């Protein structure tokens, strides 16, 4: 019995299907410029990039919810970070869904093609003519399995103008994965490696006697930093008792530096704010600096301003009027450990 054969193109695959024996193959995903299906390496690249995008979105949300974003960005940018992360997660999820659908279609089409190829076998004993008429030949699709010349003069090589390699994939993945790697290494963190105590040798140790002017509430580190360069502000704050929070830096038992960083936009532009903390010269108390070193502390003291030896500048200082060492180190009256909402000041 003679069979009528028709060759149907499907995604650049040469499948000679016996139409009376097999149904048509399902539609394929978009093809490239040469009519071929996307290679496996293309799917690997797309899945990997989408996966990294999901990881970046999850990390951004994690930084926001855990508060670690305070180590990187000023508060005014936190909402933008969260919004961008949610958009990135949505787009990446849609991309993954599309890739899964495309991969499923490719797998189904390849399986269908193999099934059709094995459904009808042409051999010397199949008892029908395989010669094609000129009209039929125009419908014949040539693929990798045919044994004759196609007359194709287009050669794909280094000068064909098409990109056939994925050599940049490792570099792309490395760049995209940098934030993921840093997050896994617990970076950024609160370690400020360049903190140094103030050199008080440039300032006069002589201070005029100032009476107690009471307490000043809600005075910020930044306000006192600016007050040092303003005569009216110095007159307003000097003699008042205030509380400041910062890092304890120093290795002296009668003085240390309280450091806080001011952030304008992100951690990269943070600048240090310094205040000299001094134990009252008339007190016998001595700091246990080995215990306090590099800890976040809240200090209560009387505001004073140290004048530079050249008389051109002033430095904010707090005087701790503790009775003795136990009063200074163990009562939480003058210095105590604390945890700030953020290591940076923004205003």
Class per helix and strand makeup: alpha+beta
CATH superfamily of the largest domain: Nucleic acid-binding proteins
Helix run count: 8
Name of the level-1 CATH class of the largest domain:
Mainly Beta
If strands are numbered along the chain, what order do they take across the biggest sheet?
3-4-5-7-6
CATH architecture of the largest domain: Beta Barrel
CATH topology title of the largest domain = OB fold (Dihydrolipoamide Acetyltransferase, E2P)
CA gyration radius, whole angstroms:
38 Å
* Main pleated-sheet profile: 5 strands, mixed, barrel
Let me know the number of strands.
Answer: 9
**Number of domains as seen in the coordinates:** 2
Rounded mean pLDDT is: 76
Kindly summarize this structure in a few lines.
By secondary structure, the chain is an alpha+beta fold.
Question: Overview of this structure, please?
Answer:
This protein has 347 residues and is an alpha+beta fold. The protein has two domains: 6-124 and 140-145 and 168-184, no CATH class; 200-345, OB fold (Dihydrolipoamide Acetyltransferase, E2P) (Beta Barrel), CATH 2.40.50.140. It has eight helices and nine strands. It has helices spanning 40-66, 78-119, 134-137, 169-184, 221-227, 231-237, 289-292, 325-330; strands spanning 6-7, 16-17, 241-249, 255-262, 271-279, 296-307, 314-320, 335-337, 344-345. The strands form two sheets. A five-stranded mixed barrel has the order 3-4-5-7-6. It has a two-stranded antiparallel ribbon with strand order 1-2. A hairpin with an 8-residue loop joins strand 4 (255-262) and strand 5 (271-279). The radius of gyration is 38 Å and the shape is elongated.
